[in-house]
């Protein structure tokens, strides 16, 4: 029984991180029907910058409690990722806005590779351990273990999602973003500067991505230059599962994928008679992705994606 | 005599190699309701889109409120006082009725005045008030047209451009929409009205322009155009 609860908890934690990243994919898709495949790299760079920053502070002999060091790292990483997201849109996607859809898609994949290689030049090809600065206290939860860090990740993820929903649903900027995604020409007629709205979409998604990257690194105690690929693909799967373009869908898809992956991998050994171990957990994301694309391409809560294609 | 609110001289617009507007002159004075009529593909929508910056002209001059507009970015036009109710209405389907109206006031920051204008729109269109929380995509065609007009009014335009407000609507709804157009005109809003329904448009307008394959072929008072035999044959079905 406790294995089940343990996997449930792990799934929720990982799922909430997927959800944060999936929101970045889905926001950009919603506003310009583009899959920003470089989003995973923005997540990775958020993690890398944070680790570098914390190590720097530690090397300088700064005496601060772990959570504050982490905060300092985050405050560095978030603007870096935001600037990166802004620049990517400006330099790579904006010139292609009226090009056939394949062009920005190929650009996105190319950018993703460029950013990976760049990160490798800066941070090397090895795994970077996450500095052990955080309390490692473990709580017992109905026979399962949960750490302070996991609790913090879960709460922060939902606070951020709540903040995003407030921004989108209740503010003038959010209204302009929704209007732009539904009819950019008319939004322009109403005085919305479409370029600003698109930039803001990238910037906001990138900020969430940076935080999510740090969560991944802290949760798995490591980060590396290629981590953006897998985490990006999984979050993309989550966005597709929920219905790409739909914010609530991204959250539901993220949590669901986290649960499927976690529960699935927990029992993968049993299911395959020991043939596949839990280290094969990544296959679940791909199975889900393929299944959704075959059986319900518009996702669980999706709009008519196919019509627009 | 002061300059007209809108002055268009020798305007040319092309889509690639297709010359949709081939050098037209237009003038609209403060407080006028001017109709622009013409057959399918005459270039009416193209003209309106060019006036609000959605398409950049290939030549000619547009002066609005004493200043040239051709070089402005599209989102600046509405703050200058130029707004278009597009062909097919263009409501934001997954925004509520109230949110659609607020989008019309996007460039304004005067909260109290916006709330006041919102009431004014609801007064003109009680239907919209009843449905203010509903998604615009769930409205009927006539209601969407009311919403599109209401949304445009929310920007407090100096010149309101209307592209075929009667399109696809039942006759009784068309009558209603035109009643509203007259009411708005009576409040002093200057309008340029593009219509396939030439009779109704000319009966509503002060003056009219007739457009044929990218050129203005006639410009006169609405009454004279209505009395013109050639116009009656070509556009009024008489
Ligand atoms: N996006 C476009 N690309 C190429 N040609 C276009 C485009 N839009 C319009 N045209 C052409 O330009 C000409 C004028 O079209 P426009 O839509 O302005 O006419 P209209 O008078 O509004 O007609 P309607 O009464 O059908 O709305 C037509 O020949 C049309 O085929
Ligand atoms: Mg037209």
Automatic annotation (TrEMBL), chain A:
A GO molecular function assigned to this protein is: L-valine transmembrane transporter activity
Q: Which UniProt keywords apply?
A: Amino-acid transport, Cell inner membrane, Cell membrane, Membrane, Transmembrane, Transmembrane helix, Transport
Instruction: Look up the domain of life of the source.
Output: Bacteria
Could you state one GO cellular component term attached to this entry? plasma membrane
Entries under InterPro entries matching the protein = ABC_transp_permease, BCAA_transport_permease
Compartments annotated for it: namely: Cell membrane
* Pfam families registered for this protein in UniProt: BPD_transp_2
Membrane topology term reads:
Multi-pass membrane protein
Q: Which GO terms describe its biological process?
A: D-alanine transmembrane transport; L-alanine transport; L-isoleucine import across plasma membrane
Locate the transmembrane regions by residue number: 12-35, 42-62, 68-93, 105-124, 144-168, 189-217, 248-268, 283-302
Q: Which family does it belong to?
A: Belongs to the binding-protein-dependent transport system permease family. LivHM subfamily.
Q: What is this protein called?
A: Branched-chain amino acid ABC transporter permease
TrEMBL record, chain B:
Q: Which domain of life is it from?
A: Bacteria
- What's in the keyword line of the UniProt record? Amino-acid transport, ATP-binding, Cell membrane, Membrane, Nucleotide-binding, Transport
Q: Which family does it belong to?
A: Belongs to the ABC transporter superfamily.
Q: Which residues form the ABC transporter domain?
A: 6-238
Entries under SUPFAM superfamilies matching the protein? P-loop containing nucleoside triphosphate hydrolases
> Which InterPro entries does the protein's record reference?
AAA+_ATPase, ABC_branched_ATPase_LivF/BraG, ABC_transporter-like_ATP-bd, ABC_transporter-like_CS, BCAA_Transport_ATP-bd_LivF, P-loop_NTPase
The yes or no answer to whether the keyword Chloroplast is present is no
Name the UniProt record assigns to this protein: ABC transporter ATP-binding protein
**CDD domains recorded:** ABC_TM1139_LivF_branched
Any GO BP: L-amino acid transport
**Naturally occurring in which organism (per UniProt):** Chitiniphilus eburneus
One GO MF term on file is:
branched-chain amino acid transmembrane transporter activity
